Amino acid sequence: MNRLTTAWRRLRLGTQLALVLGVLALVVFGLVGTITVGLLHQYLEDRLGEQLSTVLSQYKSTGELTSISPGKFGHPSSNDHDPPIGVQFQFGANSEYRVVNARPQGSPYPPELVAMARRALTGPHPDDKIMVDGTLYRFVAAPFMNTAPGKVAVVGLSEADTDATIRRMVMVNLVTFGFALIVLVVAGQQVLRRGLRPLGDMASTAHTIASTDLTTKSVDLSVRAKGAGGGVEVEELRSAFNVMVDHIDQSLVARSAAEQRLRQFVADASHELRTPLTSIRGYADLFAYAAANEPAERERHLARMREEAGRMSLLLDDLLLLARLDAAETPLRPEPVDLVEIAVAAADGFQAGRPDHPFTLEVEPASLPLVGDPMRLRQVLDNLLTNAAVHTDPGTPVWLRVRSEAGWAVVDVADGGPGISPENQAKVFDRFYRVDDSRTRHSGGTGLGLSVVHSLVTAHGGAVALQSRPGTTVFTVRLPLSAGQV
Ligand code: ADP
What we know:
Layout: H1 2-10, H2 13-62, H3 70-73, E1 85-91, E2 97-103, H4 111-122, E3 127-132, E4 135-143, E5 151-158, H5 160-210, H6 231-293, H7 298-326, E6 335-338, H8 339-353, E7 359-363, E8 369-372, H9 374-390, E9 398-405, E10 408-415, H10 422-425, H11 437-442, H12 449-459, E11 463-469, E12 472-480
Parallel strand pairs: 7-9
Antiparallel strand pairs: 1-2, 1-5, 3-4, 4-5, 6-8, 9-10, 10-12, 11-12
Helix pairs in contact: 2-5, 5-6, 6-7, 7-12, 8-9, 9-12
Adenosine-5'-diphosphate binds at residues 387-388, 391-392, 415, 417, 420, 428, 433-436, 440, 445-451, 473.
């Protein structure tokens, strides 16, 4: 039984369904066959019964079986091989009897026939099937009643042709139903197989995906369930399957891009940290040498060491800030602030620190209240102003414009410097990206200034944009104003 179940489970779904269909058809065919054969048998027996009673009454009145002819009844029982049998018995008082008539002459009459005839004298007219010379006959018997007491007429018609007709019917049924069954199972299996083929295709696509190593860096998940047809359900399954694979593909691409960015970030950060560290080590060696040989030089080396350590700590501050902003563990301390105040303070700082850059401050409204971290907002403006000074030649004019625009506080930091080329404009907000690496590194840039600006502005619910061409570079920061301020 277990082996059968295992073998059944191993069959393809199409074959299983076709076999179930076959079994169901077998049951239906069996029922239909049994009912039709049963009805035919009943019909033939009824007709035989009617013929027997006609033959019996004629035989009783004429003593002949003349009316039995193939032409008259058209019944197969009246064939030449098994002619009708008629016997008339005369029963005496002490169970003795004699045959007074037999048609055809000398017809055999087995003991069952005698017993049956005797029963007709006392009870209802018997109707029995009795074997005569190897042929089954159906007999009916009736007494002569008042005309001749103790006399009984028995007639019998062969069942052979009824049986032959039934046998033929069973054969015809078996052949047609058998043929229909084979056609049904074979054609059904083909149709089901074709219908289920899309599922097989999907399964092999799923296998391909399953055998793809999704842990590698560059995952290629371009396989999709192809093909068409298979009905509405299969179509739905196919499109749902493909949408699912699309989702997995996209998230894998996003994950690998994020991993790539992280790797790049870690590599860049290590590289950036190694530079001041190498300098510090070098100055430490020089300091040790100077301490023994040139004491006057010591202070200079010590100052350089401090300078490099300061650069490192700035870099680490920026890295820490970015990491916190990335982790959505916001390091902001928001409070109601006036952006105009912050801008004025930044402008003052710039003018004091960068006297070689002509500077213009344009403030439209008297105040721009919003909720934000004043220290971080100042850091945003300082970073942008520092860039305007550091990445342009001395004498280049710098502007700081503050205005409000439909619910937004807008700050433009502009300069009349060389500008940033279009291909670099998209990248300047990337971490550690410098347009001219050697120049900016020399000027103390970490390549993190604009990333910090971008992250801080985004954390405040705002956006930063850049427009630049030779002679004009404008960084525009937009921050949402407090509710009620438009
Ligand atoms: P850095 O520490 O190098 O200033 P940033 O992220 O602040 O890093 O800037 C990225 C790069 O964008 C700079 O290296 C510089 O090449 C370019 N850049 C930024 N601001 C300006 C500007 N106002 N004019 C020209 N180039 C600029």
